[in-house]
Amino acid sequence: MNNNQPRDRSSKRGGFKKSLAGFVLFATVMSFGGVAFAEGSWTSSITGALTGFDSRNWTDKKIDNANTTIKLEGCRNVNVAPNAVTTTDVQLQKNNNNWPDESKGTKNFSCRNSATGNWGNVAKGDYYFRIKKIDGNESGGRLNVTKVTTAY
Length: 152
Prior knowledge:
- 14% of the residues lie in helices and 41% in strands.
- It is mostly beta strands.
- A four-stranded antiparallel sheet has the order 1-8-3-6, with no helix packed on it. A four-stranded antiparallel sheet has the order 2-7-4-5, with no helix packed on it.
- β4 and β5 form a beta hairpin.
């Protein structure tokens, strides 16, 4: 390139304009609440859980307005035929330290393939879930879940 000729910056400016337009679109969508992002989530599995099984704890700091959801995939009651449809009652609990824990409600999952329970936008605090029933029974079942996804 000859140093005496002006440099062509039109392609660089076009890229900048496209980037700026993309940022403005993103900021507009976010300001209208078009996309909700969960503050946190975790994924695990369950093997051989009896009724009364408690999940790990998590802390919802309420940095967002996301609902608390639990998704179970591939549920099996290992005490019955391996391909039997399994229903599972899951109760969301708020940990109240030295006081009795507070139930936030129970959802019934028909989760042979997958099912999701939504507890809404719960208050700030420490939470866990409890397996209350397996196939409608408060005892006698043993639950396997291929994948558990909790978002809050």
